[in-house]
Design the sequence.
């Protein structure tokens, strides 16, 4: 029964290994990929159903009792994120054959794809902070391979920087875990939380907390540590950018949510207050980045930064509404970022360039693509009734209740600018004169995954009444760390 | 003993950061290797350095070695070994494709 919790990690891992045996048989590999990812999606959906009806599933690996062995904790937040991961991954798996060249597919794309999913799910599900580091490395290793896939000049140049910055933050992570182990004598997150509570989070523990925040902020691309992110997310193929944009930075922000709602919560005036400022600055600088460029892929990549800022704002404010909003926004952003990256990849393919100054009038040839972009812009900026609106509404409601007026103003203004940055693509690229010399390419099959992701996004907005109770119960669960501690240590 | 090892790991960190701030790709890799050594040594020290005791805790035993840091380091060493070998290949290919191993020239221009 409790073995269910490990399936979202194991299934993609096995799938990746199986697919590594016959990389050259493309038809077979593509079919198997789709089967595996749909199967995994079904399993994760079943786990979500189980967890929401019967409570968290806790797996003590190797039957070692909780604080001694590694625990896999499938609580509501973890499984919901694992489900979203698999939805995004499934969309990418269906998009990949159209977007990637045969050569790239043959160089083990699908194996690394599954290893990435395995690492991301593992990072969401683990209940052990060192194990979190290990799963970070699993997903980073897969991402290192994916980012250089193809081996272009630009790709190699950007991936070297990507590997170095991630290696640096990983080593800091090990050091922070070392500090934590030396101070509280355990690496089990529930037990760390318990012991930090007992000593009322003395000075050294807050320092360790900030060190961990630094590590996660590098991975999540928060201000001022986002400089490595936009360019390295743009250079690989759109389907890989979509996976990175939707999943990798979100693992970082998830770790911040987990650690700063469970462990370091006794000096909120020191830590969480800083988060609000960092969130505000992330929004401002991220959106300035998006407005400053004419590269459509780069616009979307820069848009990741304010989104992470919104989520961090929820953690910083740290009340019921704000945390609900952060979780809602996290799930919304995973779906919409994936669909935007896929969409922009399609536009860049259709136009033959990703430079906005070099194409216009696409609406004459691809009306459907134009309207998809239009709707995604609305969803991303949070125009009611779409999903971004619900998340932002909760975040703003929470911030107003906490009397954080400055961040509310920044959030509202940056939302407007986010809308403008997407509409810029629409106005410059899709409006305008029909270019007679332009030869439209077939984009058959590329829009279907985007439509599915957008439909999910629209449903999350219109069906908010259906989803909100689950999100509310997650935020209640997160705000009282005793829930998690009891579930792991006494369950 | 712990004190000396901590200073050593501090020196390793300092040397690592110095190398990471250089412009030559190979120096950056050496920096990252030193950084991981420093982190591992630090992790080992955190479990207290003792010799001659088995890592077994049963009733009546008060003096034992903590086995957990060793397990953590082993995992971490394997990971950083893998990444270092990947980095070496990556740096070689990058230097060859871009005709330079100077980070200053690997910056790239604004619009591409």
Sequence:
């Amino acid at each position: 029964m409790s073995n269910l919790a490990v399936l979202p990690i194991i299934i993609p891992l096995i799938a990746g290994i199986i697919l590594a045996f016959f990389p050259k048989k493309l038809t077979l590999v593509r079919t198997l990929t789709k089967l595996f990812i749909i199967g995994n999606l079904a399993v994760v959906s079943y786990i979500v159903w189980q967890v929401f009806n019967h409570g968290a599933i806790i797996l003590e690996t190797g039957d070692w009792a909780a604080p001694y062995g590694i625990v896999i904790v499938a609580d509501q937040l973890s499984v919901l994120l694992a489900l979203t991961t698999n939805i995004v991954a499934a969309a990418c798996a269906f998009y990949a054959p159209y977007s990637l060249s045969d050569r790239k597919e043959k160089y083990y794309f699908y194996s690394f794809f599954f290893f990435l999913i395995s690492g991301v799910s593992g990072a969401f599900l683990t209940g052990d902070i060192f194990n979190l580091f290990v799963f970070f490395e699993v997903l980073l290793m897969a991402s290192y391979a994916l980012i250089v896939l193809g081996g272009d000049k630009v790709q190699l140049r950007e991936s070297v920087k990507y590997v170095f910055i991630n290696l640096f933050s990983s080593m800091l992570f090990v050091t922070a875990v070392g500090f934590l182990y030396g101070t509280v004598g355990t690496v089990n997150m529930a037990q760390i939380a318990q012991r930090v509570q007992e000593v009322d989070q003395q000075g050294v523990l807050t320092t360790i907390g900030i060190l961990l925040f630094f590590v996660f902020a590098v991975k999540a691309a928060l201000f001022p540590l986002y400089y490595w992110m936009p360019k390295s997310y743009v250079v690989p193929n759109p389907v890989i950018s979509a996976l990175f944009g939707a999943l990798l930075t979100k693992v970082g922000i998830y770790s911040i949510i987990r650690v700063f709602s469970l462990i370091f919560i006794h000096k909120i005036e020191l830590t969480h207050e800083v988060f609000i400022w960092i969130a505000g600055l992330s929004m401002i600088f991220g959106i300035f980045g998006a407005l400053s460029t004419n590269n459509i892929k780069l616009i979307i990549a820069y848009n990741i930064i304010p989104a992470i800022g919104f989520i961090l704002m929820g953690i910083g404010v740290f009340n019921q509404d704000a945390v609900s909003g952060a979780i809602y926004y996290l799930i919304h952003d995973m779906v919409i970022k994936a669909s935007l990256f896929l969409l922009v990849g399609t536009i860049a393919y259709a136009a033959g360039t990703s430079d906005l100054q070099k194409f216009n009038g696409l609406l004459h040839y691809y009306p459907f693509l134009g309207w998809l972009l239009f709707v995604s812009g609305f969803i991303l900026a949070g125009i009611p009734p779409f999903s971004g609106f619900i998340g932002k509404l909760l975040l703003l409601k929470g911030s107003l209740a906490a009397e954080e007026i400055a961040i509310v103003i920044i959030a509202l203004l940056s939302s407007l600018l986010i809308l403008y940055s997407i509409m810029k693509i629409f106005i410059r690229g899709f409006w305008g004169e029909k270019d007679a010399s332009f030869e439209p390419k077939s984009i058959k099959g590329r829009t279907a995954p985007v439509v599915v992701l957008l439909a999910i996004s629209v449903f999350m907005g219109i069906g908010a009444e259906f989803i909100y109770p689950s999100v509310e119960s997650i935020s209640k669960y997160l705000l009282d760390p005793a829930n998690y501690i009891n579930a792991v240590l006494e369950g | 003993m712990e004190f000396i090892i901590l200073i050593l790991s501090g020196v390793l960190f300092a040397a690592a950061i110095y190398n990471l701030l250089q412009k030559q790709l190979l120096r950056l890799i050496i920096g990252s290797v030193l950084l991981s050594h420093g982190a591992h040594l630090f992790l080992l020290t955190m479990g207290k350095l003792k010799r001659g005791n088995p890592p077994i805790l049963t009733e009546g035993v008060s003096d034992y070695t903590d086995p957990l840091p060793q397990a953590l380091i082993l995992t971490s060493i394997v990971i950083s070994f893998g990444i270092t070998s990947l980095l070496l290949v990556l740096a070689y290919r990058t230097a060859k494709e871009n005709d330079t191993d100077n980070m200053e020239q690997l910056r790239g221009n604004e619009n591409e």
In short: Chain A touches chain B through 36 residues (CB under 8 Å).
